[in-house]
Amino acid sequence: MKNKKGFLLAEFSLKTIIAVLSIALLIYLLVAIYSIFSGDKEQDEAEASLERVIQNIAAIKNDPQNTELSIIITQPKSWVFVYYLNGVPNDCVGTKCLCICEKDSLDSCNQGVCKITGDDINLQTGIKIDVTTILIKEETDKIVISEVKP
User: Fold this and answer.
1) Where are the domains of the chain?
2) pLDDT tens digits for 30-87?
3) Given this model, what pLDDT does residue 23 score?
4) How many CB atoms lie within 10 A of CB 79?
5) What pTM was estimated for this model as a whole?
6) Residue 74 CA to its chain's centroid (Å)
7) Nearest to 99 by CA among 44, 53, 50, 26
8) What pLDDT band is residue 24 in, cutting at 50, 70 and 90?
């Protein structure tokens, strides 16, 4: 009889260990899947924010009475605005591009979104996105983009 109780205890322990390992594996898989989709979310947020800036630039250029606009950009956090003159990212070969990049780099914008503008833009360096108010204004054939400090 003592042997049966010992056998049942070992069987229960083995089932418990397998259950705990299975739960740990499921948690790991869920975290991995979440990280895959969260990266796409930041890319989509960067695209939407850049599109808002481009639309506001077009609004300023098309309305002679409207010489400046300010907008609030909140996503993706800690990404930065970068302006390239000669197509450093592959998307912008030979043209002028406004980008939102994961890192402030003059060499490349591998993790980010770029749009060809065709406009001369004077971009204040180091505009990091958090809850950032951006001022867009037109000055003698140039668009000036700067951060409004609170």
Assistant:
1) 37-148
2) 988 887 776 577 788 888 888 988 888 888 888 878 778 888 888 888 888 888 777 5
3) 94
4) 27
5) 0.66
6) 10
7) 50
8) very high
Give whole-number Cα distances, 4 to 7, 8, 11, 15, 16, in Å: 5, 6, 10, 17, 18
Over its C-alpha atoms, the chain yields an Rg (Å, rounded) of 26
Angle at 133 between CA 126 and CA 127, to 5 degrees: 5
Bond preceding residue 150 cis, omega within 30 of 0: no
- Kindly state the tokens that stand for 82: 């970068």
Give the contacts of 58 (CB within 8 A, at least 6 positions apart): none
**What token pair was written down for 59?**
């609004």
Check residue 1 and give its pLDDT: 45
Residues 117/51/78/44 CA torsion (nearest 10 deg): -120
